[in-house]
Amino acid sequence: MKIHWMFSEADLQAIQEATAAAELRTSGEIVPYIVERVDGHDEARWCGATLGALFLSLAAAAVNAQIGLWGGPHLWWIALPPLIGGGLGYALAGLDSIARKLIPQDTLEHRVRLRAEAAFLEEEVFKTRDRTGVLVFLALFERRAVILGDEGINQAVPEKEWQRLVDDLVAGIRQKRAAESLCEVIGRCGELLERRDVERREDDTDELDDAPRVKDR
Predict the structure, then answer these.
(1) Residue at a domain's end among 102, 123, 149
(2) What percent of the chain lies above the pLDDT cut of 90?
(3) Domain span at residue 198?
């Protein structure tokens, strides 16, 4: 699982402890959720193959126009450049840094949001006494984060305040300090909920497990 290269067991333990500490000041129930990627994004590979085939075909035509390189059966010169270019483009699109550039940004945003909403239901973040669950969702390949609050949270916290935390999480992923950023943002979640009067009750119990959920997808 690729995700373990970025999150050691010590990192996961630190995230769990940060979650438990944040919940001491509020009735909010914070659920950290991390995925390596939300989707296979196969279209990146085929986009790379198409661009590679087009580029090498044009390059071969340009070289021939300049120096008349073509010789032998013309079929080979027509068939080989797009085949070789397509193969190279397909292979290069397997690199994360290139694949991300081949996928429209709004597509990434949409897929990450859908996966976060699915995680919210999957982990039953809604299943708290006062509807005070909060999902903190990270998608590492996509370099995206989503924070989803349940009904009791959304009544207290404006969405723009979550966006500041989301932006900091995304910056942390880009800087390859996702674990530290996640711990920091979870702590700030606790502070924000306390400031917004999502108060801890005297009979408050830990309703949702504090351990981070870690998935390939």
Answers:
(1) 102
(2) 57
(3) 2-40+104-215
Q: Do the Cβ atoms of 99 and 89 come closer than 8 Å?
A: no
User: Which position has the higher pLDDT, 164 or 79?
Assistant: 164
Are residue 208 and residue 181 in the same domain, yes or no?
yes
Q: What does R_g of the chain's alpha carbons equal in angstroms?
A: 24
Q: Which two tokens stand for residue 202?
A: 């005297």
**Residue 190, both tokens:** 């606790």
Alpha carbon 133 to its chain centroid, in Å, reads 20
Identify whether residues 159 and 60 lie together within a single domain: no
Same domain? For 131 and 68 the reply is no
Q: Mapping DSSP to helix (H, G, I), strand (E, B) and coil, where does residue 21 land?
A: helix
pTM confidence score:
0.86
Residue 153 in this model has a pLDDT that exceeds 80: yes
Rounded Cα–Cα distance for residues 143 and 36 (Å): 10
Structure tokens at 137: 């969702």
Question: 3-class SS at 88?
Answer: helix
What is the structure's pLDDT at 5? 60
